[in-house]
Amino acid sequence: MAVDLTGSYLTLDDGRPAVRFSRAYDHPAERVWHFVTDPGELARWFPCRAEPELRPGGTVRFGDDPGLPPGRVLAVDPPRRLSFAWGGDELRFALDPAGTDRTRLTFTDVLDTPEAAARNGAGWEVCLAALDALARGEHPAGPPAGPTPLWRAYYEGYLAAGVPSGAPVPGLDRP
């Protein structure tokens, strides 16, 4: 299955590796902000349940398991900027005007390790496709979990593009 990769691998000015995606939505920033901050909307596209407390230093609860370690909100400027820690990664959401009632979302996953780039890039492709559907007014149930055939196609695409790989893949690699 051929796929179009929408993410790019880069090294940030501070030397950290990242994968970055950009989307334009026919919605004002306030609506796109709701997509990326409201737990009900996040449940339709984010890889797990996420409940951010929208203040600097606030917690982000992930999943339904109370044993999962929470993340921390690093920066928030509604409705334009949000970043939070998730495990060793930092997720950044930047919303900028892209015309009348149109918003560009730039999503950056600042990686804990470069070896996670292909794995995470493939995962975010699947998740962001669900966000795209939500923005079109569809009702996605949420991205599928695990290494689905679509995820594998994206992963193979990132490998073929020379994006760093080697991080374990839950559901595929055994400890």
Name the features.
single chain; 175 residues; alpha+beta; Alpha-D-Glucose-1,6-Bisphosphate, Chain A, domain 4; 8-stranded antiparallel β-sheet; 4 helices; 8 strands; 25% helix; 29% strand; globular
Strand content: 25-35%
Task: List the secondary-structure elements in sequence, H or E.
Answer: EEHHEEEEEEHH
Spatial strand order of the main sheet: 1-2-8-7-6-5-4-3
The counted number of beta strands is: 8
Largest sheet: 8 strands, antiparallel
Structural class: alpha+beta
Rg on CA atoms, Å: 16 Å
Overall description:
Residues 26-134 form the Activator of Hsp90 ATPase homologue 1/2-like C-terminal domain. Belongs to the AHA1 family. Pfam families: AHSA1 (PF08327). InterPro entries: ASHA1/2-like_C (IPR013538), START-like_dom_sf (IPR023393). Helix content is 25%, strand content 29%. It is of the alpha+beta class and 175 residues long. It is globular. The chain has an 8-stranded antiparallel beta sheet with strand order 1-2-8-7-6-5-4-3, covered by helices on one side. It has helices at residues 29-37, 39-42, 117-135, 149-160, and strands at residues 8-11, 17-25, 50-52, 59-62, 71-77, 81-86, 89-97, 103-110. It has one domain (8-160): Alpha-D-Glucose-1,6-Bisphosphate, Chain A, domain 4 (2-Layer Sandwich), CATH 3.30.530. It is built from 4 helices and 8 strands.
